[in-house]
Every structure is written in structure tokens, then in C-alpha cells.
Design brief:
Helix content is 85%, strand content 7%. By secondary structure, the protein is mostly helical. It has one domain: Helix Hairpins. Strands 1-2 form a two-stranded antiparallel ribbon. Helix 1 packs across helix 3 and helix 2 packs antiparallel against helix 3. The chain is rod-shaped, with a radius of gyration of 34 Å. Homodimer. Interacts with FtsZ. Keywords: Cell cycle, Cell division, Coiled coil, Cytoplasm, Septation.
């Protein structure tokens, strides 16, 4: 457990947490910036009011990051479905291609054994058509594989953004908790009854 002394709006607070000191200072700095910004924009506000408005702003940030995180999740699921469909199409094309290659070999073998010229010409035409179909199928398979590679790259980027959004949400949750602690302490300092009881 780390204990760090920080200043928020000129008042010292002791923060306790499992996180690194640098992180706790970062949280306190964020809250301090929010409070000071609100007080600068409205000098009539009390410190406790500024702390409440800061908490509202931080929760707003947290909700927006949460929404962004959920949006990333949905995109990730959609891309995963598309990728699986492409992979299924590629497997299907590979099977068809293998079948066509076997059929082509079979026709070529029959062609070698045939003595009828008209039959030979008919089979040659059939082979040409099959060859053309195979070329088209190969191009389609290559196109699917390229699209699948691009989807994997996009999927990787979205996973990175998703992880980043998750860390931001956790960060904002910590900031909110620290702001609430700050507000309780501020109220205690500003309430003479609480101070006299404490003595």
C-alpha cells in the first residue's frame, strides 16, 4: 500500500492505494486541475461546490469513455464475424479449387486416351473453361485472403484502442473516488461542528 501526500486546490491530502506513486500524483493532479479550472471560471463558488462540479465532470468523462469502450466492443464483434465469414468462404473456395483441379487432371487423362478429334476438341474447350474458372476462383480466393489480412490488422488496432479505453475508464473511476474523498475532507474542514466534535 502506497501513501502519497498531494495538493488539491492548495490543501494537502494523504492518498493511499495499491497503485504507483506516479499514478496517484497523476490522479490528484487531474482533480486539482478540474477544481481550479471551475473556481477560476466562477470565483463565487465555494470549494465544496467546485469539488461537486469536478466530480460531475469526471463522471461525465467516465461515462463517455465507457460508451466509447462499448462501441469498440461492438465493432470488434462485427469484424470478428466478417473475418470468420471470409475464412469460411476461403475454405469453401479451396475445396472447390481442389475438386476442379482433380476434375481437370481426369479430363486431361481422358484426352490422352481419346482418338476422336471432335471429342478431343470438345474436351479441350471444356478444359479451357475449367482453367478460366479456376483462375477466377484463385483471384477471388486471393481477394478474400487480402481482405482477411486487412480485417486482422484492423481487429488488432481495435483491440489496442479497446484496451486503451478500458484503462481510461479505470483511471476515471480512480479519479472519481479520490474526488469524493476530497469532498468529504473539504466538508469536514468547512464545518465547524464536525471540527469541534473531532477535537
Amino acid at each position: 500500500m502506497n501513501i502519497v501526500t498531494v495538493k488539491i486546490n492548495g490543501v494537502e491530502y494523504n492518498l493511499k492505494g495499491e497503485e504507483q506513486e506516479e499514478y496517484l500524483h497523476k490522479v490528484a493532479g487531474y482533480v486539482d486541475k478540474k477544481v481550479r479550472n471551475i473556481l477560476e471560471n466562477n470565483k463565487k463558488l465555494s470549494t465544496s461546490s467546485a469539488a461537486i462540479l469536478s466530480a460531475v465532470n469526471i463522471v461525465d468523462d467516465m461515462f463517455k469513455k465507457q460508451k466509447e469502450y462499448e462501441s469498440f466492443l461492438e465493432k470488434l464483434e462485427d469484424i470478428e464475424k466478417i473475418r470468420k465469414n471470409y475464412e469460411a468462404d476461403i475454405e469453401s473456395l479451396k475445396k472447390q479449387l481442389k475438386h476442379m483441379e482433380e476434375y481437370n487432371l481426369e479430363l486431361q487423362q481422358k484426352l490422352k486416351n481419346s482418338t476422336n478429334i471432335q471429342e478431343l476438341e470438345r474436351k479441350e474447350e471444356k478444359i479451357r473453361k475449367i482453367t478460366n474458372e479456376m483462375e477466377i476462383m484463385q483471384e477471388t480466393a486471393q481477394s478474400y485472403m487480402k481482405a482477411n489480412t486487412e480485417l486482422k490488422s484492423e481487429n488488432k488496432e481495435l483491440k489496442f484502442q479497446l484496451q486503451s479505453a478500458k484503462y481510461k475508464v479505470i483511471d476515471l473511476q480512480h479519479k472519481l473516488m479520490e474526488n469524493q474523498i476530497s469532498l468529504v475532507k473539504e466538508k469536514k474542514q468547512n464545518n465547524p461542528l464536525l471540527n469541534s466534535n473531532a477535537k
